[in-house]
Write a structure and sequence with these properties.
Pfam families: FlK. The protein has 2 helices and 7 strands. The chain has 130 residues and is an alpha+beta fold. The chain has a single domain, classed as Hotdog Thioesterase (Thiol Ester Dehydrase, Chain A). The mean pLDDT is 94.
Length: 130
């Protein structure tokens, strides 16, 4: 594992809201705006952009936590810009804060955690228990 970053560095991910991002459950459509679930997935990806440059060929990242504060809606066709900031990297733990915005409007903020593990260890940890 290598770390070419410093605390405070940022990565940006842009996501256009589509119908696939709407809040839906087994009982149908809840509302036609970007769901908290979809925002969370985009936030985790923004933090993973750091991990992609840190991990070695024999390593992979795995999510360890996610907090999200959903503040306002993002509508179909709008572009959400998620900016992840590296808060800390201790050992193999990578912690990022993030803000998701449509223009000047804050849509969500929070934190993500990921851990970088050797692929062989990860395969053992994630193997089905028989």
């Amino acid at each position: 594992m290598k770390n070419p970053f410093q605390t405070g560095d940022s990565k940006v991910y842009r996501k256009t809201v589509t119908e696939a991002d709407f809040a839906r459950f087994d009982d149908g459509l809840v509302h036609a705006v970007c769901s908290t679930f979809s925002l969370a997935q985009a936030a985790e990806w923004a933090g993973r952009l750091f991990v992609l440059e840190m991990k070695g060929e024999d390593e992979e990242g795995i999510g360890t936590f996610l907090t999200i504060n959903h503040k306002s809606p993002a509508f179909e066709g709008e572009v959400i810009e998620i900016v992840a900031h590296l808060r800390s990297q201790e050992g193999n733990n990578v912690i990022c804060s993030f803000e998701a915005r449509v223009g000047d409007r804050l849509v969500a903020d929070g934190e993500t955690g990921q851990k970088i593990l050797k692929k062989e260890k990860l395969a053992r940890v994630l193997a089905p228990i028989n």
